Amino acid sequence: MVQRLEKHMEVCQKMLNSKRKVFDSSKARAKGTDLEQYLHTKGRTKDPPVKGSLWRQKHESFIRTIRQARMVQNVVSKGGKPSDLPPPPPAENPDYVTCPHCSRRFAPRPAERHIPMCATIKNRPCPPPARRR
């Protein structure tokens, strides 16, 4: 009995010190087939990072739009003019990039083209006034 315990302790120490190889099922499936020559795991590129969901901002924007439409409906049903209501607040897209030179907002790709060009413009009009929140 003591001999078995000593043997167990030796084997157990070896197992604790060694790391197990990670099993890759795609390699195992491709082994022995024509696909094996095309399978290179080191050359894989990482996926681009996924942006967080902006569902809350989109939802709030949607709710504001519905409320504005209801206000217009109420005014029209009471015989008023929809033009008497204040204009709805502009919807801001969080994906847009603000130009540091003219404070305009652009989608990411047009911003890449605009910002270097805007930096060299000498007769630039005044930036738009800041929006109230």
Overview of the structural elements:
With 133 residues, the protein is mainly alpha-helical. It has 4 helices and 2 strands. Among the domains are: 59-89; 91-120. The protein has helices at residues 2-17, 25-30, 55-77, 108-119; strands spanning 97-98, 105-106. It has a two-stranded antiparallel sheet with strand order 1-2. A hairpin with a 6-residue loop joins β1 (97-98) and β2. The longest helix has 23 residues, at 55-77. The protein starts with a helix and ends in a 14-residue tail after the last helix. The model has no long low-confidence stretch (mean pLDDT 82).
Secondary structure layout:
Blueprint: H1 2-17, H2 25-30, H3 55-77, E1 97-98, E2 105-106, H4 108-119
Antiparallel strand pairs: 1-2
Can you give keywords for this protein?
single chain; mainly alpha; two-stranded antiparallel ribbon; 2 strands; 3% strand; coiled coil
How confident overall, as mean pLDDT?
A: 82
Q: Count every helix, treating DSSP H or I runs of 4 or more residues as helices.
A: 4
**Strand residue percentage:** under 5%
Query: What is the N-to-C succession of helices and strands?
Result: HHHEEH
What overall form do the CA principal axes indicate? elongated
Assembly annotation: single chain
Q: What is the straight-line distance between the termini?
A: 80 Å
Helix-strand makeup class: mainly alpha
Would you identify the regions where 5 or more consecutive residues have pLDDT less than 50? none
Helix content estimate? 40-55%
Q: What is the number of strand segments?
A: 2
Estimated radius of gyration? 32 Å
Largest sheet: 2 strands, antiparallel
